[in-house]
Amino acid sequence: MRVGFVGLGNIGRPMALRLAAADGIDLTVYDVVAEPVAELLAAGATAAWSVEDIDADVVCVMVRDDDQVRAVAGAVGPGTVLVIHSTVGPGTPAELEAQGLTVLDAPVSGGPMGAADGSLAIMVGGSDEAFSAARPALEAMGSKVVHAGSLGAGTRMKLARNLIHFVAFTAVTEAQRLAEAAGLDLVALGEVVRHTDAITGGPGAIMYRDTTAPIAPDDFWYDVFGHVQALGEKDLAFAIALADELGVDVPLAREALPRLGKGLGL
Length: 266
Hints:
- This protein has about 270 residues and is an alpha/beta fold.
- The chain has two domains: about 1-155, Rossmann fold; about 170-265, N-(1-d-carboxylethyl)-l-norvaline Dehydrogenase, domain 2, CATH 1.10.1040.
- About 50% of the residues lie in helices and about 15% in strands.
- The chain has helices at about 10-20, 35-40, 65-75, 90-95, 110-115, 130-140, 155-180, 185-200, 220-245, 250-265; strands at about 1-5, 25-30, 45, 60, 80-85, 100-105, 110, 120-125, 140-150.
- The chain has a six-stranded parallel β-sheet, with helices on both faces. It has a three-stranded mixed β-sheet with strand order 7-8-9.
- Strand 2, helix 2 and strand 3 (about 45) form a beta-alpha-beta unit.
- Helix 9 (about 220-245) runs antiparallel to helix 10 (about 250-265).
């Protein structure tokens, strides 16, 4: 299988290295920076002088933004499946398909560490035919490859996933302010959070239902999420009371308290 890879940055470089090490893949790479290209050459890949010089069945793109993706797309040959790993605007994949290209939007989650060990989650939008054509390359780079739906579905899933990520990061900053005001060791708190998230699953622990509709009282999840709601509302109320005592602003906690149960479907 002939695969091209464009964009050898922090995540693209280890993704391309996984392809270079995979059986049955003939890899050609391109980047404007010489060092990662040299590393891929040493790993067995071929270097292209430009995107136009890449002769491949599938061209994977991991560049900075939508404009760079468009520039690469404009240089890809006909009949090639363009796989966009960059997180782009929701309308960009369809815009490129309208130009006559065969496109998959396939953003990734897992960061440089996941790229290095091949454990990325890759969320793919596009036709069954294009997905089948690119699948061997995708599975060489990720351990969780999900065909999310038609073109654009991969990007929409990535945006939903990262909403969790960055809202949670913002909540962490709020918790750190509260902990600091309470005289706690923030490094030790971080160790506790990572330890318990590894056990409980973190926010993903409540993501098992296939709908956000209200839960019927005879549904299995009714009592499970009722327990989550009771614990959550109690602990949030105590945290807000502590924040008030210490003069710490915790707007996310205040927003979560009245919304938790309804969001769970109760």
